Amino acid sequence: MKLEIFDFIEEATGHLCELEDQLEEASDELEKFFEFEMEDFEGFLNINTRVKTKMSLKEKILRNNYYSRYENAEEMIYDLSDLIGIRIECRFIEDENKLYRKLLKVFDVTEDGKYFSTESNPDVKLKLDDKQPQRQKNGFKIFRIDGKYRLGENEITFELQIKSLVNMFWGEIEHKILYKNFNYVMIEDFFRDIMGSIKENLSMIDRQLMILHDHINEMDEDNDEVRKNQFQKLLSKMIHNMYSHKIKGDIGFVVDFRKPCDIIVKYIFEKSKVYDVSSYSITFLGILGRLKDVSQNEISFIEYIEFERYIKFEDEYEKRLGEPILGSLNQDFMWNLLFRILFDIEIGTDTEDFEGFIAFIKDEFLENLKSNGKLNSRFEDWQRNDIVDKVMNAIADVFQENTCIEFVNYDNIERINSKITTRVNRVKNFEDWRDQAFEVVENIKQDIRDILE
């Protein structure tokens, strides 16, 4: 049986095909309109338009988990802000702001204070009440404006961007190397630092050389922890590469699943009770042999996951973490993908592997609390247990309200644990805990929500 999300995708791409002629017509009309409005501006270079493709739509649905956010595919299609993409290209970065100011002057007719049109063409509307430029997830800013175009009786959404030559150059590099390239890059953070340096200031060569120097020193450092991380990174890369081919062969394209590969590797090494470098080498070779064994296995990424028996949880913490995942397993593609790969690699039943993984995630948070030196020295056992119980339930509360796979990305687990340690260590004694427990717990919940945004 197919995952429902793929039926949703088929329905969505069907609606997109039905709109194709209208979108192409609207794209042509909008290109002509904005070219006419901008042609007398000194910094203006070109207008570039594109209509969203079926493959791009498929990737966006999976990446943003739209299946769980919309009642049906048609509603989602008409709610997308970028069925048509329009880019006004200009010479310099300062021209971006000047072009935006020009749009504010030209689009001066409004009925609701949000969307504005021109006197010459009321069918083209721009949402100009948002602050511009907008800050992206990567930290950089972009002039990005939502728009609507009335074509006959239909209203079609589009996204307008204003970009200088430098930012177009930067955007192409980022899009191909970091955003669309899902091949695992072992030194991804290094590349991000280099590209961020170029974006901020092309003359900061010394900064680039410093990053390069530090990176090479770290790779050569004779340090057990560094070597362990290298083992895990290499194995995660190999798993990613192997399953990338399988995913592309099954669904036609590859999604970004590097973070799930990282947590799978962490789980495998933890399950193997590997604590020293020599054991890491042995375990690493064993997993390589297992990957070789399963490399020829046929695997489907569009089918339901079904278990051989009911899942058993060891305690309430595991139950509160595990049940939301069970509910999302055949609804959320990334959860399904994580466990599909884990079950394929691990020896044993799928049920046992699922139970083991949930116990592992629980312990990643629980052991952080149990190993807290200040928590152990300041409180008696029963007092410490009360604190641990409330904090663990706070984690479960947020997980149940937002069962996203980002919760188990290992860097997020470390960030959550760091925030929890900081909050708990501020409590000096149990009397303070009684007075502050509610506030501390609520702050921890908000910390986690902020990390997952």
UniProtKB/TrEMBL annotation:
GO terms for biological process: guanosine tetraphosphate biosynthetic process. Pathway: Purine metabolism; ppGpp biosynthesis; ppGpp from GTP: step 1/2. Gene3D superfamilies: Beta Polymerase, domain 2. Residues 49-185 form the RelA/SpoT domain. It comes from the Bacteria. InterPro entries: NT_sf (IPR043519), RelA_SpoT (IPR007685). This is RelA/SpoT domain-containing protein. It comes from Andreesenia angusta. The lineage of its organism: Bacteria, Bacillati, Bacillota, Tissierellia, Tissierellales.
